[in-house]
Amino acid sequence: MTDRNAAREDRTHRIQQAVQQLYDAYPFPPEPLLDEPPPGYNWRWSWVAAHSFCSGRKPQRQAIRILDAGCGTGVGSEYLAHLNPQAQVLGIDISERALAIARQRCHRSGAENATFQALPLGRAAELAGPFDFINCVGVLHHLPDPAAGLQALAAQLAPGGLLHAFVYAELGRWEIGLAREAIALLQGDRQDYREGLELGRQLFATLPEDNRLAQRERERWSLDNQRDACFADMYLHPQAIEYTIETLFELIDRSGLRFAGFSNPGVWQLERLVGQASALLERGRSLPERQRYRLIELLDPDIAHYEFFLAQPPLPDCDWADAAELLAAVPERHPCLEGWPSQTLFDRDYQLVRLNDAEYAFLRACEANPERGATVADLLAETELDAAGVRSLLERHLLVLSPGNGGAP
Fold first, then answer.
1. CA distance 95 to 118
2. In terms of Cα–Cα distance, which of 221, 232, 174 is closest to 199?
3. What is the pLDDT of residue 1?
């Protein structure tokens, strides 16, 4: 082994050990355990919703394998298990204490299709793959080598599979980075996380009220950071790499996977910043995609993270622009709607939706459709909705479609 490789392995070991010690001291996320399924949904953790978002169509299979890479205390694993009851979910993490909580969490809520294993993400190649859906939220940026970690996950992603990731954004975390470094300087030895927590709490209590770091903590993060585990994860972490749009796409390009879209697409709409009828909007829309994303983050430096889907080709791309293909498609209600059945409900992002009578009747007719297999044309004949109304339901993510006869448009 060369001196360079030995030094790299030593650095990797030291970082992994420090991260493990943090999460053994403060298991994360610190959400309470329930004796029932978790409340609501996160549509990004629904295989049907995620696949429909990325490909335009419902996936052909729901009995899939899901990997929750860096699962922590199992909050995401629990949702993945309940939102995908036909799937088998495996959560991996380096913290044994967090994994013990994850096992207890899923057992208590009835998520018996979730299992857990102690394993660093960088050793994902040791798992019996491949996986159809990989969730990696808030983990890559804590690795010694995020690019190698993402490549390890990409190698375990099945053809047509999806990976959902979440990493830190540099601009929106500027104050966090300064406070994190300041606490580290005051502490000296970063390994005593409980002392670091006390120092950090004391620092924010002492800073002047108009101090920029204190203001940012108070206005944006303090509610979550009342919990020690959240404060420690934000300000005491021994390894936190932050990205810009440029470095994010460098990371993605090195993975060999295809970018399938940000999973908070509303944030990346330029019109929310420059208006609808603006000459600036026209100029911005003419930019290449990545330059347009960079423009948006420069204009909105509050963006503190990137959340996105990556795909392992081949992945279908269905836009349902062809009228015949739309009419032949098999429709189902979107799996993530809160308040259904009602004409007033919340969509996948918990935004209020009001359905007219025809839309409501069409979605009610879709209720039995997984077994019945009626087409859009069949249900239009039974209701007062028209094809334009179906497209509207689809655009508002209230509907998912499968190609007629199981084919691809």
1. 7
2. 232
3. 61
- Report the distance separating Cα 310 and Cα 135, nearest Å: 10
Task: Report the SS3 class of residue 137.
Answer: strand
Q: Are residues 345 and 379 in the same domain?
A: yes
Residue 370 pLDDT: 76
Whether the model clears a pTM of 0.85, i.e. scores above it, the answer is: yes
Q: Which of 355, 315, 314, 313 has its CA nearest to residue 334?
A: 355
CA distance 146 to 241: 8
Distance CA 213, CA 67 (A): 37
Tell me, yes or no, whether 7 lies in a domain: no
72 plus 149 within the same structural domain: yes
Structure confidence by residue, pLDDT tens digits, 126-158? 999 999 999 999 999 999 999 999 999 999 999
Task: Decide: 62 and 87 in contact? Cβ < 8 Å.
Answer: yes
Q: Which two tokens mark 206?
A: 């002492």
Asked if residue 350 is part of any domain, the answer here is yes
pLDDT in tens, 192-203: 999 999 999 999
Q: How far apart are the first and last CA of the chain?
A: 53
pLDDT digits (tens, 9 = 90+) for 69-114: 999 999 999 999 999 999 999 999 999 999 999 999 999 999 999 9
Question: To which H or E segment does residue 177 belong?
Answer: helix 174-187
Residues 260 and 363 in one domain: no
61 and 163 co-located in one domain: yes
Is 136 part of any domain?
Answer: yes
70 is a domain residue: yes
Show Cβ contacts of residue 90 under 8 Å, excluding neighbours closer than 6 positions. 65, 66, 67, 68, 114, 115, 116, 117, 127, 131
> Any idea how long the chain is?
409
What angle in degrees, to the nearest 10, is found between the helix axes of 193-206 and 174-187?
A: 120
Q: Is the peptide bond before 314 cis (omega within 30 degrees of 0)?
A: yes
> Cα–Cα distance between 43 and 40 in angstroms, integer?
9
Please give the pLDDT value at position 191: 77
CA distances from 234 to 26, 51, 364 (A): 12, 31, 45
Using 50 as the pLDDT threshold, list the residues of the chain that sit under it: 406-409
- Alpha helices, DSSP H, located in 207-241: 212-216, 222-225, 228-235
Sequential DSSP letters for 291-352 = HHHHHHHHH-TT--EEEEEEE-S--------SHHHHHHSEEEE-S--BT-SSSEEE-TTS-E
